[in-house]
Specification:
The complex is a heterodimer of chains A (458) and B (302). Chain A is 56% helix and 18% strand. With 458 residues, chain A is an alpha+beta fold. The longest helix of chain B is centred in the middle third of the chain and has 17 residues, at 180-196. The chains are: A alpha+beta (458), B alpha/beta (302).
Chain lengths: 458, 302
């Protein structure tokens, strides 16, 4: 997880996703609950309205049988205008559908054959005023071509429905908002923690073993994990420190007597005459000390690279490769070897500049050693999205495919190479330095010659 | 550090170290300067005695050694803090032989005491010392404001240790085992640096008729412009700043390329021979000399 991803990072974080899933679930639950309530409530309201209408229809039918038409009209008018039953709607029309009595202004234009129950919008009395309300009603014919409509204002039901629908939407929206907000908050929190952990982990991988993952107050999985990883790091650091201590003691215990040997020999040389035969012996001694020193240096550097405790810095690989090529150019020219180089600019990695320089120098030393006069050496630095790659190619004898793995091991010198001076540690150091930088070392056939490539990660 | 006439060390032999020298000042340069009767060495100047193996002719070696004398031999007051007695004694002797006054200390506390109480030109401090670690010694010294140049000797690995050493306040860092010639060259370079002061380096460097302008990056000899590559220019600048002194291959690789390893191939020699082609080829008097078994020196003497 990269902190640079920012908001996008929060949206793809697991706590955010979990929060979204939960809020959708809660929203669905809210919809189900409110729908249930809605249907129950509307059934109760509808039921009572319908019963009222049924009873009224029944009552009016009976009245019509016993009353004269004018009395019946008066009765309808009376019922229409008393407010005993709020929302009651009546209309009596003559055969040409002209209103005779009632409180509706006009017969609803509803296609015939719609069944017993109809529902329509009409202008209904509402206190002293009139409103357009939803009306549910029954129609029935009266003798003489008259028709009667008895209904009820069901706007209330509609209102309840609307209120409930609005409540439903509000509940769903607020559930989602709370869910998203909570998700973002939790995502941020976790991301910040995870980001801090991954930043430290990167530094640890770069070689700073003294760093530890941040542990917060809270008792959560991330903290437990961080604590356990920290415990593991303690152990790794102890082991590495132990290795480093052993290495330092070994260095000290070997360099000190070598130094004594060297200074004794040099002091003795001062006392000897120019042509004394002992001189040759002592010069041999100091030459051997030099050789032991360079072997020791190489071994210690390999060990150092393998413990991974080398401090790292930003290294301009392009500049480094160019500088090594420049360092070796005169020597190759002097030996009649053509040195080509093609170095892209701007390749940067994290690592040890000194160890990288020595690895590259070893590759060039090797190439020069095995390339005859008139031969060619090519040094390439390419870089693509997968990371920079340094290649050193010569057209010397090369290394047989079956022995390539072998030469990377310590002190392996192929028979063919025995006549050439060198400690045999050159490629081992290259291998150790490559590993230290998390790079891949490949020996291949340059046809003819050897191609060594170091592929770094981006 | 003023040099005597002909560049011979002024103090050599004439100013015995306090407490008396471990060896009679019968060594190399001392014999040349003040003790002509000091054995067979009186007429032989050969840096090979302390500059490692050599296979060359005596005469060439002698000539080269003379070239290196003027600054290299300036007498200094040095302190060696080293717990290994064999190494300490040999080093003290070699340093006295080139005319330096030497005090020694066998542990860190004694070393710190001496370094803080006497006027020193330079201190050579071993990295690992009993009682007080070498790095702690240097840090304490720096904390008290003492600016004396310090060369750290180390029997540890390298790469990081070197950085730690320099960060602690050391001015140079040398890994054991070392050649005395390397150590002498570095001591001289450190002393020169301390003498010139850390800050300003002259814009124009001059040696005989050779001139180098650091601003215009122009090099002339006898008024004639010399074309150099960027690296050759850097190399010449480094040599001119240490003119009259021996500069080793390692010093060049460190000072000009900032690399701290020994290449298996003689890369530095070839760079030097190119530079020599450029600055010496068309002129009678060579300025860039090879010091057998030690390195190179840019000097008017030949």
């Amino acid at each position: 997880m990269d902190q640079e991803q920012g908001f996008l990072g929060v949206l793809t974080s697991s706590p955010f996703r979990i929060a979204i899933v939960y809020s959708v679930a809660f929203a669905l639950g809210t919809v189900a609950l409110l729908s249930g309530v809605y249907f129950a409530v509307s059934r109760v309201i509808d039921g009572s309205a319908d019963n009222l209408i049924e009873a009224e229809v029944q009552g009016l039918r009976e009245q019509y049988l016993v009353l004269s038409r004018s009395d019946f009209i008066e009765l309808v008018e009376q019922r229409s205008h008393t407010q005993d039953v709020r929302g009651a709607v009546y209309l009596m029309v003559d055969p040409r559908l002209r209103p005779v009595a009632g409180n509706l202004p006009a017969w609803p234009t509803i296609p015939p054959g719609e069944g017993k129950w109809i529902q329509f919008k009409a202008i209904v009395p509402y206190g002293d005023q009139t409103r357009v309300h939803e009306v549910r009603a029954q129609r029935f014919p009266l003798p003489g071509g008259y028709r009667m409509l008895v209904g009820h204002d069901v706007q209330e039901r509609q209102d309840v429905k609307n209120v409930m629908m609005r409540g439903l939407v509000a509940a769903v929206v607020s559930t989602m908002l709370i869910g998203i907000g909570g998700g973002i908050w939790m995502g941020r929190r976790i991301l910040a923690h995870a980001g801090a952990i991954s930043a430290v982990a990167t530094e640890i991988m770069r070689g700073d073993l003294s760093r530890r993952l941040p542990v917060r107050e809270a008792e959560d999985e991330l903290n437990t994990l961080a604590r356990e990883i920290n415990g593991m790091l303690d152990k790794i650091e102890q082991l590495t420190l132990g290795m480093r201590t052993v290495l330092d003691s070994a260095a000290h215990d070997l360099r000190t007597p070598l130094n004594r040997l060297q200074s004794t020999a040099e002091a003795a040389l001062t006392d000897l005459g120019q042509d004394s035969p002992e001189r040759r012996v002592l010069e041999r001694v100091t030459a051997e000390v030099d050789r032991m020193r360079s072997t020791l240096d190489a071994l210690l550097r390999i060990a150092l690279a393998e413990t991974g405790t080398v401090a790292r810095e930003a290294v301009d690989l392009s500049a480094l490769v160019a500088s090594i090529v420049e360092l070796y150019a005169p020597v190759t020219e002097e030996r009649g070897i053509e040195l080509h180089s093609d170095v892209v600019a701007g390749a940067r990695i994290q690592g040890s500049r000194q160890l990288l320089a020595q690895a590259l120098a070893n590759l060039l030393d090797n190439a020069i050693k095995f390339t005859p006069a008139g031969g060619h050496i090519r040094v390439l630095l390419r870089a693509d999205a997968t990371g920079p790659e340094v290649t050193v190619e010569d057209d010397g004898p090369g290394i047989p495919a079956d022995k390539r793995d072998l030469v990377l091991g310590r002190r392996v010198r192929l028979d063919e190479a025995r006549k050439v001076p060198g400690s045999g540690l050159g490629l081992s150091l290259v291998a150790a330095v490559t590993k230290l930088h998390g790079a891949r070392l490949v020996l291949a056939d340059a046809d003819p010659g050897l191609r060594v490539s170091l592929k770094f990660a981006a | 550090m003023p040099a005597g006439p002909n560049g011979q060390p002024r103090g050599a032999g004439t100013r015995p170290p306090p407490g008396g020298p471990l060896f009679p000042p019968c060594g190399l340069l001392a014999s040349l300067a003040a003790y002509p009767a000091c054995g067979i060495l009186s007429d032989v100047i050969d840096f090979r005695f302390y500059m490692g193996p050599s296979d060359g002719s005596r005469r060439r070696a002698a000539a080269a050694a003379v070239a290196a004398i003027p600054e290299a031999g300036s007498s200094m007051h040095l302190l060696i803090v080293e717990d290994d007695q064999v190494a300490r004694d040999h080093l003290a002797r070699a340093l006295r032989e080139v005319g330096h006054t030497v005090d020694v200390a066998a542990d860190g506390l004694e070393g710190l005491h001496l370094a803080s109480s006497i006027a020193l030109d330079l201190a050579i401090v071993d990295r690992m010392l009993p009682k007080l670690d070498g790095l702690a010694l240097v840090q304490s010294l720096r904390a008290t404001g003492r600016k004396v140049p310090v060369l750290i000797l180390s029997a540890l690995g390298d790469v990081d240790d070197r950085i730690t050493g320099l960060r602690a306040g050391g001015d140079d860092y040398l890994t054991k085992p070392y050649h005395v010639s390397e150590l002498l060259a570095r001591i001289d370079a450190l002393a020169r640096r301390a003498e010139l002061g850390s800050g300003e380096v002259a814009t124009k460097l001059k040696l005989a008729d050779l001139e180098l302008d650091r601003m215009t990056r122009r090099v002339t000899r006898g008024g004639k412009k010399i074309e150099l590559t960027a690296r050759e220019f850097q190399l010449l600048e480094f040599l001119m700043r240490h003119s009259g002194q021996v500069v080793t291959r390692t010093m060049l690789l460190e000072g000009v390329w900032d690399y701290h390893f020994d290449p298996q191939t003689n890369v530095i020699d070839v760079h030097i021979s190119r530079l020599r082609q450029a600055i010496d080829k068309d002129f009678d008097k060579p300025l860039l000399h090879t010091v057998r078994g030690a390195g190179y020196s840019l000097s008017e003497e030949d």
